[in-house]
Design goal:
The chain is 47% helix and 13% strand. It has helices at residues 2-10, 62-78, 80-84, 91-107, 117-135; strands spanning 21-22, 35-37, 40-44, 47-50, 53-56. Strands 1-3-2 form a 3-stranded mixed sheet, with no helix packed on it. Strands 4-5 form a two-stranded antiparallel ribbon. A hairpin with a 2-residue loop joins strand 2 and strand 3.
C-alpha cells in the first residue's frame, strides 16, 4: 500500500482522510473496521451517495428506488399549484410536464437497476398517483 502512496505523491495526488471512505460490497459484511493505508486511516461506511445514486454494501437497489420516488414527490409538489390549476394548463400540457420534468427525476440511473416485484409495484404506484392527479376524477353523465 505504501507504493500506491508514493506513486500518488509523485503525480501530485494526496489522500484526504476526512473525505475518503470505503465500502465493502458483499452479501454478508463481517467487518466494520477502518482501512489503514500507510499513515492514513479510512472510515468504513455502509451506504454512500455517488453521482446522485445511493449505493449500499448489500447492493440492494430498493433504498435507491425509495429515494428516487421521494425526489419525484418533491418535484411534483414543487409544481403543485401549476398541476392543480385547471385554468393554467390543460391535461396534455400537464402530462408533458410530468414526462419531461418529473419522470426523469424518478428514473435517473434506472438502466442499472435490477428490479424486484415490490420495486416495480412502488414505481407503478407513484406513476398512477401522479396520473390520477393530472386527469382528475371524470364524471360520466348517465
Amino acid at each position: 500500500m505504501v507504493t500506491i502512496e508514493k506513486d500518488a505523491r509523485r503525480r501530485g495526488l494526496l489522500a484526504n482522510e476526512s473525505k475518503t471512505k470505503y465500502m465493502q460490497v458483499a452479501r454478508a459484511v463481517h467487518s466494520d473496521e477502518h482501512l489503514c493505508c500507510g499513515q492514513h486511516k479510512f472510515e468504513h461506511v455502509k451506504e454512500i451517495s455517488y453521482l446522485g445514486s445511493q449505493m449500499n454494501q448489500t447492493n440492494s437497489i430498493s433504498s435507491e428506488i425509495q429515494a428516487r420516488i421521494l425526489s419525484g414527490n418533491r418535484c411534483y409538489y414543487a409544481y403543485g399549484k401549476l398541476m392543480k390549476s385547471r385554468a393554467a394548463l390543460n391535461r396534455s400540457s400537464k402530462l408533458k410536464t410530468y414526462k419531461s420534468l418529473m419522470r426523469p427525476v424518478v428514473t435517473y440511473g434506472c438502466e442499472a437497476w435490477t428490479l424486484t416485484d415490490g420495486d416495480e409495484q412502488h414505481l407503478r404506484i407513484f406513476e398512477r398517483r401522479i396520473l390520477r392527479k393530472i386527469f382528475d376524477p371524470v364524471q360520466n353523465d348517465i
